[in-house]
Amino acid sequence: MKIVIIGGVAGGMSAATRLRRLNETAEIIVLEKGPYVSFANCGLPYYIAGEIEERSDLLVQTPEQLHARFGLDVRPNSEAMLIDSDKKEVEVKSEKGTYTLSYDKLILSPGSKAFIPPAEGLAEAENVFTLRSVPDVDKIMNHVEKLNPKKAVVIGAGFIGLEMAESLVNRGIHVTIIEKAPHVLPPFDEEMAAFLTKELERNGVKLHTNLAASAFKEKGRIVVLENGEELESDLTLMSVGVIPETTVAKTANIQTGIRGGIVVDSTYETSVKDIYAVGDAIIVKQQITGEDTMIALASPANRQGRQVADVISGLNRKNKGSIGTAIVRVFDVVAASTGLNERQLKQSGLDYAVVHVQGKNHAGYYPNASTILLKLLFNATTGKIYGAQSIGEDGVDKRIDIIATAIKGELTVEDLPELEFTYAPPFGSAKDPVNMAGYAAVNMMEGLSESVQWHELERMQEDGWLLLDVRTESEVATDGRLKDALTIPLDDLRERLSELPKEQPIIVSCQSGLRSYIAERILKQNGFTAKNLDGAFALYSVVNSQKVVN
Question: Among residues 42, 173, 522, 548, which one is catalytic?
Answer without folding.
Answer: 42
